[in-house]
Design a protein that fits this description.
The complex is a heterodimer of chains A (262) and B (225). Chain A is an alpha+beta fold and 262 residues long. Chain A folds into 2 domains: 109 residues, Ubiquitin-like (UB roll) (Roll), CATH 3.10.20; 137 residues, Fumarate Reductase Iron-sulfur Protein, Chain B, domain 2, CATH 1.10.1060.10. Chain A has 9 helices and 7 strands; from the N terminus they run E-E-H-E-E-E-E-E-H-H-H-H-H-H-H-H. In chain A, the strands form 2 sheets. Chain A has a 5-stranded mixed β-sheet. In chain A, helix 2 runs parallel beside helix 5. Chain A starts with a strand and ends with a helix. The mean pLDDT of chain A is 93. Chain B contains 9 helices and no strands. The chains are: A alpha+beta (262), B mainly alpha (225). At the A-B interface, helix 6, helix 7 and helix 8 of A face helix 1, helix 2, helix 4 and helix 8 of B.
């Protein structure tokens, strides 16, 4: 198979970028999208040109590193997968494919297709700790959690933090990400002690990072590789309202996390 | 107080206020439509209904000021959030494809603007009587102000009908997304109710617009005269 790729090239965060066209030939149907890009880079290296920078790690859909907007859709045309799980047989031979980075103010471009997603880490940090007692191991059944509740919490916890929700959102909102993180802890007894302070701190951190607000278009759910439901956004909204009524247990819960991490 | 302020200053807090103010306005729009449907009962019913409303100046003016306040909050927050959202993505995608988003949800700012302009026109036209072809301001047989006559005079004019129907189309688009979206923002979500919550927006939009357009067209087509 052969493809014409229209790839966003940008040398650094402050430089201006542009689209450059590349030919990818000798592509087999079984190649993943990233393997196809590896092939393109191999040829660029042989020709003495700068290879296209793109992010990856596990290449099996669990790390959340890969991040490409392929023909206008984060993680490409298939649902419920990451870019590394997308195969070239999905595209018609000879297709033109446009590849862009995640675009959001909160995700500055590092180089080419690589963006800095540490804003999501800072939102997580703002959420703070979960109380865990030290001492002897607790008996396995001391803390009873209903099956449905455990499953729902797990659905939320399956977020890999790739940022596709932000990339797909018209407003570059991180609501689905924050919703998943807040919901999975709020649903479990282990997350209850800090429940009130956590949601406020994470929402304020989200706003501070420059993400937009939720328009309830549900584009995030459509591109989420883990198919995280927008019902968690409703949960997040409920949690936030609850926190506004219940007095926060954590004073200054939303202080910038950088003070601690630097 | 500062805690409350901080709560509503966040994006989620602002959206809650936007949703609540929006639902308040939706409530009024439904009430307004139901009241106006009395045109089908004839001039006496509509005129005495109008007189009934105007007979309670304190209630009337409290409602008017309240509605104005809610509308100002709604529009101001919508502009504030839209600007914030625009800043969140300084550089647009070369190609952006939507998967779920309805046309209504993608045109909320535009449909909102159409509705706002329409409301201004509507107030200047039928409430204040400043714009539009000057209607005969008469007193009916019972001594009430002849609102029915105003309505008939207005909607026999094709230009006025066109403006009102366009306003209703804008309203339909806006409510189609707005009502369900507001319920999500307020945190309503349940496996057993999700179908109902999702249908709320389109249903309310259809109900309001059908009712209003029925009045306009009934007069224009001389079914009501």
């Amino acid at each position: 198979m052969r493809f014409t790729l229209n790839i966003w090239r940008q040398n650094g965060p402050t430089e201006s970028g542009r689209f450059v066209s590349y030919e990818a030939d000798d592509v087999s149907q079984g190649m993943s999208f990233l393997e196809m890009l590896d092939g393109v880079n191999q040829k660029l290296l042989v020709a003495g040109e700068e290879p296209v920078a793109f992010e990856y790690d596990c290449r099996e859909g669990i790390c959340g590193s890969c991040s490409l907007v392929i023909d206008g859709i984060p993680h490409g045309p298939d649902q419920g997968i990451t870019t590394c799980q997308l195969y070239m047989r999905r595209f018609p031979d000879g297709a033109n494919i446009t590849i862009e980075p995640w675009r959001a103010k909160a995700f500055p471009i590092v180089k080419d297709l690589v963006v800095d997603r540490s804003a999501l880490d800072r939102v997580m940090q703002a959420g703070g700790y979960v109380s865990v007692n030290t001492g002897g191991a607790v008996d396995g059944n001391a803390l009873l959690i209903g099956k449905d509740q455990a499953e729902t919490a797990m659905d939320a916890a399956s977020c890999i933090g790739c940022g596709a929700c932000v990339a797909a959102c018209k407003n570059a909102s991180a609501m689905l990400f924050v919703a998943a993180k807040v919901s999975h802890l709020a649903l479990l007894p282990q997350g209850k002690p800090e429940r009130t302070g956590r949601v406020t701190a994470m929402i304020e951190a989200m706003d501070r990072e420059g993400f937009g607000s939720c328009g309830n278009q549900y584009e995030c759910e459509a591109v989420c590789p883990k198919r995280i439901s927008v019902r968690f956004i409703a949960t997040l909204n409920r949690e936030y309202r609850r926190a506004g009524i219940v007095e926060s247990a954590l004073p200054n819960a939303s202080e910038s996390p950088h003070a601690e991490s630097v | 107080m500062t805690r409350l302020l901080r709560h509503f200053q966040s994006s989620v807090g602002s959206k809650v206020l936007l949703a609540l103010s929006g639902l308040g306005l939706v409530g009024y729009v439904i009430f307004h439509m139901l009241g106006n449907l009395q045109v089908f009962e004839g001039s006496r019913a509509l005129n005495s209904y109008a007189a009934f409303l105007r007979d309670m100046p304190i209630v009337l003016w409290t409602a008017r000021i309240g509605l104005l306040g809610i509308a100002v909050i709604h529009v101001a927050l919508a502009i504030h959030l839209s600007l914030q959202n625009r800043r969140a993505r300084p550089r647009a995608y070369a190609i952006h494809r939507y998967r779920y988003a309805s046309i209504a949800s993608r045109t909320m700012a535009a449909s909102g603007l159409v509705v706002l302009l329409f409301i201004v026109f509507h107030l200047l036209h039928l409430t204040a009587g400043i714009v539009g072809p000057s209607p005969p301001d008469r007193i009916d047989a019972d001594g009430y102000r002849d609102v029915y006559g105003l309505l008939i005079h207005a909607f026999q004019n094709p230009v006025i009908v066109l403006i009102y129907v366009a306003g209703q189309v804008g309203l339909a688009f806006h409510l189609h997304h707005a009502v369900s979206s507001s319920l999500q923002t307020l945190g309503f979500e349940h496996a057993a109710l999700n179908g109902l919550l999702k249908a709320a927006g389109p249903s309310v939009a259809l109900l309001v617009v059908l009712g209003n357009v029925a009045i306009i067209l009934a007069v224009f087509l001389r079914i009501v005269r």
